[in-house]
Specification:
It comes from Actinoallomurus liliacearum. Residues 3-259 form the Amidohydrolase-related domain. By secondary structure, this protein is an alpha/beta fold. The chain has helices at residues 13-23, 43-57, 67-80, 97-109, 130-138, 154-166, 182-191, 205-214, 230-240, 245-261; strands spanning 3-8, 27-31, 85-89, 115-119, 144-146, 172-174, 195-198, 219-220. The protein has a single domain, classed as Metal-dependent hydrolases (TIM Barrel), CATH 3.20.20.140. An eight-stranded parallel beta sheet has the order 1-2-3-4-5-6-7-8, sandwiched between helices. The longest helix has 17 residues, at 245-261.
């Protein structure tokens, strides 16, 4: 089974399904999202949508800031297409430890979701995910996905590796191959057995090749759609792997193993 490990709710959802069909992808992990760049018809529209993303990534999001709508969109997409989407849900990181634990129980486990993410701690704030890792462990070691591209820093990646080592049974998935800090991400993952690297939006083909070579059982095909394209992401993986076990693991086998643990 081919599984895209990183996708966000599209408006309309049918557009996402067409992308998956074009790529020959069976299923996709689906995260809730507040920005919708796929809605933009021009540069100004894209700027508006990306400003929502910027606020989420740098910690400026306040109040509800679209959370309720994002959850409704996720619930609707999962209910309409349970055969295509694997639901993950995010958790606000500006809550107390007890509130985070309650949110994981209510919003992730209570909804029947399969993992937590995509978490977006602000730059310098990666330590804030530790209560989420504790809650993930308490509920059967749910996979936890953390944003890896900018504004995530190399120091944030090191913090994530430290936290992963404290919670060795929880799979911690770093998205976007750690962005511009991909070499640091590969080094840290090599040293930390429960860190997995999701490969979406990787900017260099040899970065993907090296990551798969170093971590054949802990790299995950993902597109980050609508920011990336499943066809391009799958083609990238297939350009750096030959037919056989490693390709099958990256394109879905490893993620399926993680999901079967929960």
């Amino acid at each position: 089974m081919i599984i895209d490990a990183h996708g966000h709710v599209h408006d309309p959802v049918a557009d996402h399904l067409r992308l998956l069909d074009d790529a020959g992808v069976d299923r996709a992990v689906l995260f809730p999202t507040r920005p919708h760049p796929e809605r933009a018809a021009d540069l100004e529209g894209l700027r508006r949508e990306m400003s929502v993303l910027d606020r989420a990534l740098d910690g400026r999001a306040t109040g509800d800031d679209g959370y309720a709508a994002a959850w409704r969109e996720l619930d609707d997409a999962l209910a309409a297409h349970p055969d295509r989407f694997i639901g993950f849900g995010s958790v606000r990181l500006n809550l107390s430890d007890d509130e985070i634990a309650a949110a994981v129980e209510r919003d992730i486990v209570g909804r029947g979701l399969h993992g937590i993410g995509e978490l977006t701690p602000p730059p310098g704030g990666a330590a804030g995910i530790e209560p989420v890792l504790k809650a993930a462990h308490d509920h059967g070691d749910l996979p936890v996905v953390v944003h890896g591209f900018a504004p995530t820093t190399a120091e944030d990646l090191r913090t994530l590796a430290t936290l992963a080592a404290r919670h060795p049974s929880v799979p911690l998935i770093v998205s976007q191959l750690g962005g511009l800090n991909w070499m640091t991400a590969v080094e840290l993952a090599r040293e930390t057995p429960n860190i997995y690297l999701e490969l979406s939006t990787a900017h260099l083909i040899f970065a993907v090749r090296l990551a798969v070579q170093e971590l054949p059982e802990r790299t995950l095909f993902g597109s980050d759609a609508p920011y990336g394209d499943p066809v391009v992401a799958r083609t990238t993986v297939e350009r750096v792997t030959g037919p056989g076990e490693v390709r099958e693991l990256v394109l879905g086998g490893t993620l399926l193993r993680l999901l079967d643990r929960t």
